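Q: Structure tokens for this one, please.
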Amino acid sequence: MANDKYGVLIAGAGWVSTQHIGAYAKNPNVEVRAICDLDLSKARQRAEEFQLPGAALYDNVEDALKHEGIDLVSICTPQHVHCENALAAAAAGKHMLIEKPAANSPGELRRMQDAVQRAGVKTVVGFVLRWNPLIQQIKGRLAAGVLGEVFCVETDYQSYNSDWWGGWEQGRRKDLAVSAMAVAGCHAVDALRWFATTEANAAADPVEVFGYAGGKRKGKAMQFNPTTCQWYEQSSMEYDGLEMLLVRFSNGVVGKVSVNFEAVQPYTFPIRIYGDRGTIRDNRLFAPETTGADWVELPGIRPESSDVTHHPFQAEIDHFVACVRDGVESHCNLADAVKTHEVFFAAEQCYREPRPVRLPL
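A: Here is the predicted structure, written as tokens:
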């Protein structure tokens, strides 16, 4: 750590990097010292946008990792290169925040875990909704026992993903993006785990998965843009847009989670949690022993937009920096995130061989 601040490398200068850079700028313990992108003009654009004239610019991650004074890395590159970027960062001894999904296969995850353990570096994986204000409100009430013992959780990610998203050309491809659940539905999988235990800073362990995939969009050129409410021809999606999974957890909780890239509607993130003393539906709580005979509205910003500017990156990155500073592991580190990823990788097995898949893989 130079000048009493941690030096940060931003690897990948796409859409989500704007939120990482902006959050680091507001944290007094860090300084963005380098930005890297295969397209050097994008790295330059970010440096100018955030008034970082002293930031070094690179078009190669390995070279950027050698920049003097780098302690932390935000891996904001496309998902199919997360593994190689994380392996390089671990080899260089850098702590890292890895955008979701962290990897494209169980094998990549194992390689990343081994590298992180050998290096002894801290990690956070970008399931940023754990810091969403409403989700924190819900988690707090679960931990306080307001719902009693939770027995059922349902979460869904519903967003007509198409070329309004800058990452569409890579994100629509099966070989680079794997599935709708990997691309974005993983947020709902992680929320399912987060709500399936009443432990304050933990997510539940999944032990079995079964699911189906379907929908009508795969391979079709005529698609919808929810930002303009128009239909037109665009590059087609190479995987199924609808996935529905049942998940059984080690503590006996049963969960249902889906991703729906086919719903012709604005983005929504439905939440249902059932306990033996009450129920939560989205931002409403019914718990007679606590709130009486009526539903009450929970405070806090809801997860109701796919726009990265809506997500709580400041809280996530402040958490990451604090974990490094204090030498503690995050509740959302790579080891924990593997359990979220294994749910949707197991689902891929279900689609090939329609039978329940036991976890861990």
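A few notes: Residues 334-352 form the longest helix (19 residues). The radius of gyration is 20 Å.
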